[in-house]
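Final report, Chapter 2: Outcomes

The project's central promise was a pipeline that accepts a single protein chain and returns its three-dimensional structure in a standardized token representation, suitable for archiving and comparison. That pipeline is now operational. To close this chapter, we reproduce one record exactly as it appears in the project archive, with the input sequence first and the structure output second.
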Amino acid sequence: MDLLSILLQAATPAQGGAAGYSGLIMMLLIFVVFYFFMIRPQTKRQKEIKKQRDAMKAGDKVVTSGGIYGKIKDVKDTFVIIEIAENVRIKVDKNSVYVAAEDIQQAAESK
């Protein structure tokens, strides 16, 4: 048998109209699983990162998406100025800056 005939046989309802609904229910079930295991956790994580970025202030330790560690010196609307060494400052887009893991651990321990 070729692949087309196998697919056509699988698509024809074996027990009247009930098989048509089982395919629809299966697709709905797959969507629900994707939502709860992939989409929902990702949106929660994005909201958490946005909340952390909005709460950034001068003196916070951060890491850029490129892996540069530093301390925030100034926060503007779309960018931050980070000091990565003594008197070495860089201007970085706010969307590529994350709170350093050590600060997150300290905040969790203080609660």
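Archive annotation: The radius of gyration is 25 Å.
This record, like all others produced under the grant, will remain available to the consortium after the project formally closes.
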